Amino acid sequence: MTATLTDDEVGKTVVDAEGKELGIVAKVENGRASVDPNPSIAEQLLASLGVEGEDDEDYVVTEDMLDSVGEEIVLRGNL
Question: Per its UniProt entry, which superkingdom is the organism in (predicted)?
């Protein structure tokens, strides 16, 4: 079963299979998350409040790249 991405994931930390922090979810749209690899404190605060936003340095994570979604989003190890 594939994990799904919803607006509830905005502000969550994204980590790789080894637990290395890769950034935070800035926006979710159509099963794709925009992940900010270097969020400012203001961006982290806004994301924690559920305010979506994205910028040029964000990268995209799709549902087929996910291992699990919980307190943090964990990517599969074989990407």
Answer: Archaea
